[in-house]
Write a structure and sequence with these properties.
Elements (H helix, E strand, L loop, with lengths): L1 E2 L2 E3 L2 H4 E2 L19 E3 H9 L1 H5 L14 E7 L7 E5 L16 H8 L10 H5 L2 E4 L2 E4 L13 E2 L5 H4 L1 H24 L9
Parallel strand pairs: 2-8
Antiparallel strand pairs: 1-2, 3-9, 4-6, 5-6, 7-8
Length: 195
């Protein structure tokens, strides 16, 4: 199955979360090592650095020269084709506060820009990711946290549990098309595995 520019990994229909788990029960553990962002996202964040600093606490650094790695690398899954990592400070992403909340998200929401206006795409999308053009589940936290450990279930699939994340990536119409693929797979039609 393909929606727009993405191949859809059948795992999105085959796996789900335990009751009460998933993105809405986020433990912020994934933020412990930082995240990769498009270089344009880095520039956007730095263009709002004074705003972001207002929403940081004493466990974070307001030295914006230390917010991002110095190394930039090529990756075609990022819009510009270039990505950079956020730094880790006090054993967590520089943007994660002591309450486990993202200062970028707080700043965007508090300043009327929207909760996701400053937050990197892959932070918002997690535990959904794009890997070489394939929309799939990111198993980075599998078995480490309940919030992002999938299980074999057909009651609530990743497609249903990660609605906001998938709508961000595919848009409203693309998400509706994905839901249609779920119905078709439940009707006995087999999705072709990627490979």
């Amino acid at each position: 199955m393909r929606i727009g520019k993405y191949k859809i990994d059948p795992i999105l229909f085959e796996k789900g979360f335990s009751k009460g788990c998933g993105p809405l029960a986020c433990e912020s553990t994934c933020c412990s090592v930082g995240v990769f962002a498009d270089v344009n996202e880095k520039e956007l964040i730095l263009s709002h650095k004074e705003t972001v600093k207002k929403y940081m606490d004493e466990t974070q650094t307001t030295d914006d020269s230390t917010w991002f790695d110095s190394e930039v690398f090529d990756d075609n899954d990022y819009p510009s084709g270039k990505a950079v990592g956020t730094e880790v400070f006090n054993d967590k992403c520089v943007f994660l506060n002591k309450s486990g909340m993202c200062s970028l998200q707080i700043a965007g929401a508090s300043e009327g820009m929207g909760r996701w206006a400053l937050k990197p795409f892959y932070c918002i999308a997690f535990p959904i990711t794009v890997d070489e053009g394939v929309l799939t589940f990111d198993d980075f936290q599998q078995g480490k946290t309940q919030c992002c450990s999938s299980i074999d279930t057909k009651e609530t699939t990743l497609v249903e549990s990660c609605k906001d994340e998938l709508e961000l990536i595919l848009g409203y119409e693309g998400y509706k098309e994905l839901l249609g693929g779920k119905r078709e797979s439940h009707a006995g039609r087999t999705l072709v595995p990627l490979g």
